[in-house]
Design goal:
Strand 6 and strand 7 form a beta hairpin. By secondary structure, the chain is α+β, with helices and mostly antiparallel strands. Helix 1 packs antiparallel against helix 2, helix 3 crosses helix 5 and helix 5 runs antiparallel to helix 7. 55% of the residues lie in helices and 15% in strands. The strands form 2 sheets. A 5-stranded mixed sheet has the order 2-4-5-7-6. Strands 1-3 form a two-stranded antiparallel sheet. The C terminus is likely disordered. It is elongated and about 115 Å long. The chain starts with a helix and ends in a 24-residue tail after the last strand. The chain folds into 2 domains: 129 residues; 162 residues, Heat Shock Protein 90 (2-Layer Sandwich), CATH 3.30.565.10.
Length: 307
């Protein structure tokens, strides 16, 4: 009986110790959970701060670029009028010279430089003072073909084979035809610049059904673009060409953004699939889907062969 009494006396102390340990363990668990939550909140706050800072830096950069673009556009606009007068005067002088006159070499050189300056001023004005697109339903294949026709003489001269892989059921899109022609012409020109010794230019069209977008790819088998330069391709005033303005792709990106579309690039500088591919996406126009102008695409288009 005495032993039982001693055990009974110890039990309240044991229960209190167990309860104390349980409370302590529970408190530790709660503190650990709170610590993890604080750490998670800290990470989220740090990420939010970084995103805010990056956004602010980007806004500052965009404001500076916009100001630079506006200034450049103003200067370019002032240059274009006297440049046009110089162009007409030199063309007149050139037409009066005999074919064997040695001065023709100089007038041809002047005309070449004037044309280059005219191209640069146009790009500066386009970038610095972009106009709003005039959207209307259009057949993209016709727009692409127009750009390819303009480049056909150069592609033949450089022995570049042009392949067309056009979707026969491409849905209609609402675009500013003139601006989209600028985009395709720029990409085709860049492709030919990369294939001065021959190659293949492939234009592919299709539809992304999940995202309701038309996809256009312009690919070339040129030398490719190194990763470091690839990351800056759409940065205004960045160029890899000695006579480039660095505005062509920036203008393309802006035009596509105005169309609620996008442009991206893939490139390899070595291997079997060396070359560069630009991928354009544009939203489909569901309202005019029933009137899609794709009948002329039912027959496969011929591949241009170099002569």
């Amino acid at each position: 009986m005495a032993a039982i009494a001693k055990i009974a006396e110890k039990r309240p102390h044991q229960d209190k110790n167990s309860e104390g340990k349980y409370k302590q363990s529970k408190l530790i668990r709660e503190l650990t959970a709170a610590k993890k939550e604080v750490e998670q909140l800290y990470e989220e706050l740090r990420d939010a701060y970084k995103e805010l800072k990056d956004t602010q830096d980007e806004l500052v950069r965009q404001e500076r670029l916009a100001a630079t673009g506006e200034l450049a556009a103003g200067v370019a606009h002032e240059i274009r009028n006297p440049l046009s007068i110089i162009n007409m005067a030199v063309q007149y002088l050139h037409s009066k010279l005999a074919p064997e006159d040695p001065l023709r070499e100089f007038t041809e050189a002047i005309l070449e430089k004037v044309n280059r300056l005219d191209r640069i001023t146009k790009e500066l004005v386009q970038y610095g003072r972009p106009r709003e697109p005039e959207l209307c339903p259009a057949d993209l294949h016709r727009v692409i073909e127009s750009s390819l026709r303009l480049a056909s003489a150069r592609s033949r001269a450089q022995r570049v084979v042009v392949h067309r892989h056009y979707s026969r059921s491409l849905p209609p899109v609402k675009v500013d035809v003139e601006r989209m022609d600028e985009v395709f012409s720029n990409l085709i020109t860049n492709a030919l610049d990369a294939m001065t010794d021959g190659g293949e230019l492939t234009v592919t069209t299709g539809e992304n059904l999940d995202e309701k977008h038309v996809v256009i790819e312009v690919a070339n088998t040129g030398k490719g673009i190194p990763p470091g330069k690839r990351a800056r391709l759409f940065t205004p005033f960045f160029t890899t060409k000695p006579d480039g303005t660095g505005l062509g792709l920036a203008i393309c990106q802006r035009i596509l953004s105005q169309h609620h579309g996008a442009i991206s690039v893939e490139s390899k500088i070595s291997g079997k699939h060396k070359g560069t591919r630009f991928i354009i996406t544009l939203p489909t126009d569901s309202e005019t889907k029933e009137t899609s102008g794709t009948k002329e695409m039912e027959e496969p288009l011929a591949v241009e062969k170099p002569t």
